[in-house]
């Protein structure tokens, strides 16, 4: 049986090596974006605002 078939885990998860404190800080930063309040915002506009920040995290 191949991974990912019939309920088997795919093994494609990603867990960043971050401290609990850093995970909490990033969670707060994401919550501060107030994404739930932007339901009327166009997805491309939202991506334009958020992508530079996420790109910085990934490149770090």
In short, what is this structure?
By secondary structure, this protein is mostly helical. The chain has 2 helices and no strands.
Describe this protein's structure:
The chain has helices at residues 20-31, 43-59. 48% of the residues lie in helices and 0% in strands. The protein is mainly α and 60 residues long. The model has no long low-confidence stretch (mean pLDDT 81).
Count of β-strands: 0
Instruction: Spell the H/E element sequence.
Output: HH
What would the average pLDDT be, to the nearest integer? 81
* Strand content bin: under 5%
Features:
single chain, 60 residues, mainly alpha, 2 helices, extended
Itemize the secondary structure elements and their pairings.
Layout: H1 20-31, H2 43-59
């Amino acid at each position: 049986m191949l991974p990912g078939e019939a309920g088997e885990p795919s093994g494609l998860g990603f867990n960043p090596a971050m401290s609990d404190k850093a995970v909490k800080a990033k969670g707060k930063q994401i919550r501060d974006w107030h994404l739930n309040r932007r339901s009327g915002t166009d997805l491309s506009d939202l991506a334009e605002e958020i992508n530079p920040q996420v790109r910085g995290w990934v490149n770090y």
